[in-house]
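User: What would this chain look like folded?
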Amino acid sequence: MMVEAGIRQRVLITAGAVGIGRAIAEAFVDQGAEVWVVDVDEASLATCPPDWHRNCLDVTDEAAVLALFQELDRTWGGLDVLCANAGIAGPIAPVEEISLADWRRCVSVSLEGAFLFARQTAPMMKVQRSGAVVLTSSTAGIFGFRHRAPYVAAKWGVIGLMKTLASELGPFNVRANAICPGPVEGNRMERVLEKEALIQQRTRDEIYAGYAAGASMRRFVTAQDIAGMAVFLASDAARLVSGQVIAVDGNTENPESSI
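Assistant: Here's the prediction, encoded as structure tokens.
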């Protein structure tokens, strides 16, 4: 995607008020972009800088997503980058203990939300014949993980969605890629660690060490690591990078080491 000198990228980020999404928004702003963040957490949205566009909505609400894009089109007249980042951890339990309601909620937020935003983004980018779509998957979209069936299924689905977008949109000079974070430092991962510790009857620190040991670099990644990759994928430096599954994980070698 070529951006003319002096033209600011217009970037839409889902789940953009906290965590990885917030880091992505800040990284794009640091590069001179305009950002529009959506999040279900109204309190966190209120902490965003006043010059950020923002909407409080559930990414699975089809009518709300349509209304957002109508507002965005009136305000910006187009979109250069979609970062479909929203997702939830879902239940952490053996598959036979997972309710259908919990399965559906996890898949709906993590996969259907990305679909709803991509569906509205595609025609805008086709018309302008430029753009970049960056979907947040996970190393769970590459490997299977015990006790995480809905999350894993959703993140594998995100990769399939991305591959299809790259194929459909490529002739219009629009790129699509998926970032697969490894375990990311932060509150969300802390909740996962606590649940895993309870299931396995181990300490939080033991579970943390197990996750870290699963990667050859023996560390967790940060939200800023993911944000840096998102900015790169939306830049002219990545103008021929499309349809790619890019892990930012310190090289996961043994995803089962923490189980």
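The CA atoms of residues 168 and 230 lie 21 Å apart. If you want, I can go into more detail on any region.
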